[in-house]
């Protein structure tokens, strides 16, 4: 009888250990990371194309903004990918799709995209990550959200300047943190990134 009890205890212990090792994955966060990767990668490619269009139209300051933002979005996509892979998942292949129009239209499209990310997409992603207790995703989503807020302001100012035919007051260069994507007007750069504390000596400059 004693041997039976010992066997039952061992069986139950093994079952508990097996169950704990096979807990369900954070399904919503995984879906959100994949959606974020698609969105950020598409934005990066799109802004790169928008930069080229702005150059063709003679809007050099706006072209620099798009180039800097393109780099920042690539950083966000890379961060999301790292978190996704740490959860044992891989990103499916996809092809970014977007349209390139006039610089004014491209700025408006960028504002609409950033506004959606700031007001709707990333707040929901963060809520899901917190609910599923995925701290690495929370950090990656927070860095992206805080950066998109700055991008939205940059784009809004650029569109206003373009419409007023007065682009001389726009930043003459930008700096991007390679760790979190934080984007600065080069005339006002912190010694360390305000989001992740990376030293400014490592920032990528666009001027």
Automatic annotation (TrEMBL):
Residues of the Ferritin-like diiron domain: 23-166
Biological source species: Prolixibacter denitrificans
Statement: the UniProt record of this protein carries the keyword Signal: yes
Signal peptide location: 1-19
Keyword annotations of the record: Signal
One Pfam family it belongs to: Rubrerythrin
GO molecular function: metal ion binding; oxidoreductase activity
Record lineage: Bacteria, Pseudomonadati, Bacteroidota, Bacteroidia, Marinilabiliales
SUPFAM superfamilies to which the protein is assigned, alphabetical: Ferritin-like (SSF47240)
Entry protein name: Rubrerythrin
């Amino acid at each position: 009888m004693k041997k039976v009890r010992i066997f039952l205890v061992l069986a139950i212990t093994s079952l508990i250990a097996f169950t704990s090792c096979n807990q369900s994955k954070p399904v919503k966060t995984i879906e959100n990371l994949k959606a974020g990767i698609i969105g950020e990668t598409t934005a990066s490619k799109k802004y790169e194309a928008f930069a080229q269009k702005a150059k063709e139209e003679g809007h050099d300051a706006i072209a620099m903004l798009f180039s800097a933002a393109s780099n920042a979005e690539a950083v966000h996509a890379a961060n999301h990918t790292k978190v996704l892979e740490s959860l044992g998942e891989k990103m499916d292949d996809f092809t970014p799709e977007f349209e390139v129009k006039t610089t004014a239209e491209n700025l408006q499209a960028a504002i609409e995209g950033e506004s959606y990310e700031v007001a709707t997409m990333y707040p929901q992603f963060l809520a899901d990550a917190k609910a599923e207790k995925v701290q690495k995703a929370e950090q990656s989503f927070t860095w992206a959200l805080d950066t998109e807020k700055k991008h939205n302001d940059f784009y809004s100012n650029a569109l206003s300047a373009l419409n007023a035919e007065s682009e001389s007051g726009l930043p003459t260069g930008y700096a991007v943190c390679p760790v979190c994507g934080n984007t600065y007007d080069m005339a006002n750069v912190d010694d360390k990134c305000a989001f992740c504390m990376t030293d400014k000596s490592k920032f990528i400059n666009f001027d």
